[in-house]
Amino acid sequence: MKQHTILRVAAGKLLIPYILLFAFYVQFHGDFGPGGGFQAGVIYASGIVLYALIFGLKNAMRVVPPIFVETMIALGVLVYAGVGVACMLFGGNFLAYNALSPAHPIHGQHLGLLLIELGVGITVSHAMIAIFYALASRGRR
Amino acid sequence: MDTFFGLFNYWIVIFLMMTGFYIVIARGHLVKKVIGLNIFQASVILLYVSMGKVDGGTAPVLKEGFDIYSNPLPSVLMLTAIVVGVATTSVALALIVRIKEAYGTVEEDEILALDAEDA
Amino acid sequence: MLFLGEHAHVLILALLVATAVLIVRMRSLWPAVMLTGIFSLLGATWMLWLDAPDVAFTEAAVGAGLSTVLMLGTLALVGGESVQPSRKRPITALVVVTLTGMVLVYGTLDMPHYGDPGAPIHVHPDPSYLETTPKEIDVPNIVTGVLGSYRGYDTFGETVVVFTAAVTVLMLLRRREDDEVVEVFDDEENEA
C-alpha cells in the first residue's frame, strides 16, 4: 500500500468505529441529553461516507449493500407509522402514546418516543447513504 | 441606542440572508446558486434559533440546580428544517448533474440560449 | 470565548459575515464549497452559544459533513472551474437585495429585543412546555419530548419528506443498466 494511503487507512480504522458507536449513543440517549433520531442518522451516515471515501465505493457497497439501504429507507417510515397505528389498535388516537401502556401512561410515552426516534434515525441515515451512493457512482465511463 | 444593541443580531442575520439571496440572483453557475441557497437557509435557521434565547438561561434539558431555560420551541422547529434542507439540496444537486448531461453546460446563460435555439 | 464574556457572539457574527462576503467574491468553486462548510460550522458554534445544542450538532454534521461531500461530488461530475462573471448587470441585483434587506430590517423594528425574557414567544403557550413535559412525558430533554410527542405529526411529515427526497434522487441518478459502477471519488490504490 502506498505511503500516502497508509495514514488515511490507519486514521479511518481508528475513527470509524467510534463514529458509529457515537451515532448509536446519540440515538438512544436522545431522551436524556441533546440527541435523537435526526442527529444520530446524520452522524451514522457520515461514518459510512467516510468509510466509502477512504476504502473505496466498491468496498463500502459490500459492507452496506444498496438493496439493504433502499429497504431501510422505507422501513423507518413504516416503523413510525406502525407505532401510530398500534396506538390506534390499543384504543387511543393516532400517535397518542398514552394508549401503548394503559396502566402507566408515562411508560407508554417513553416507549412511543423510543420507537419513533428509531424510525426517524433509520430513515434519515439510510436516505443520506443512498443519496451519496447515487451521486458517487455516476462517474463518467 | 438601546434598540440597536437589542436588535443588531437580527440585522446581521438579515445581512447574511441578503448575501445568500444575492448569490442566487447574480451568479450564473448553478452550483454557486445552490451554495447561495444553502447560506440563505442557514441564516434563516440562525434567525429563528436566536429568537429563543433567554438571558441567563441554559439549554432546555431539565437538571437540578437550573431554573431558567431557553425556549425549546424554535430548536424543535429548526431541527427538522435542517435535515429537510440537506434533502432538498441533494435533489437540487442531482438535477444539476442531469442538466449537465443533457445540455453540456451548467451556466445559466448558456442553458437559456440553448433552450431559445430549440424553441 | 471566556474572556469576551457576554459579548462572545460578536466575534462569531463577525466571522460569519466575513465568510459570507468571501463566498460571494470567490471566483473558483472548490474553495467556495469549503467556505460553505466553514460557514455552517461557525453557525453551529453560534447556535451552541444560543443554548440550542441539538440544532448545533445537527447543523455541524449536516453542513460541515454531508452537504460539503455532496457538493464536492457534484463539482467533480460537473466541473468547478472559474465562474464567469454574469453578463447581467450586477447593479440591478444589488438594488433588489438592498431594498429587500431594508424592508426586512423595517420589519424587525417591532421585534422584542434579543434575550428578552418577557417576549411573547416565551409567554405562550401557557403553561409552557417546560412545565407540562415533566408531568405528562417525564423526559429530561424537552426538545425530544416536544418533537416526538407534542409535535409528533410534524415529525412524521418531515420523515416522509426525507424519504421522498431520497426516492427522487434515486430516480434521477440511478443507472438503469446494471453495469460496472464508475467511481467519482476515484482512487487508484483502491481498485480490487
Which properties best describe this structure?
heterotrimer; A: 141 residues; mainly alpha; 5 helices; 77% helix; elongated; C: 192 residues; 0% strand; globular
Q: Unreliable stretches of chain C, pLDDT < 50, 5 or more residues?
A: none
State which percent range the strand residues of chain C make up: under 5%
Low-confidence stretches of chain B: none
Number of helices of chain B: 4
Mean pLDDT of chain B, to the nearest integer, reads: 89
| Structural class label of chain B | mainly alpha
Q: What's the SSE pattern of chain C?
A: HHHHHHHH
**SS-based class of chain C:** mainly alpha
Distance between the termini of chain B: 57 Å
| Largest interface chains and counts | B-C, 82 and 86 residues
Spatial gap, N to C terminus of chain C: 49 Å
Tell me roughly what share of residues is in helical segments of chain C.
55-70%
Topology (SSEs and partners):
The complex is a heterotrimer of chains A (141), B (119) and C (192).
Chain A (H helix, E strand, L loop, with lengths): L2 H26 L8 H19 L1 H7 L2 H24 L15 H32 L5
Helix pairs in contact in A: 1-2, 2-3, 2-5, 4-5
Chain B lengths: L1 H25 L3 H22 L21 H31 L4 H11 L1
Chain C lengths: L7 H18 L3 H21 L3 H26 L11 H19 L11 H4 L5 H8 L5 H9 L1 H22 L19
Helix pairs in contact in C: 1-2, 2-3, 7-8
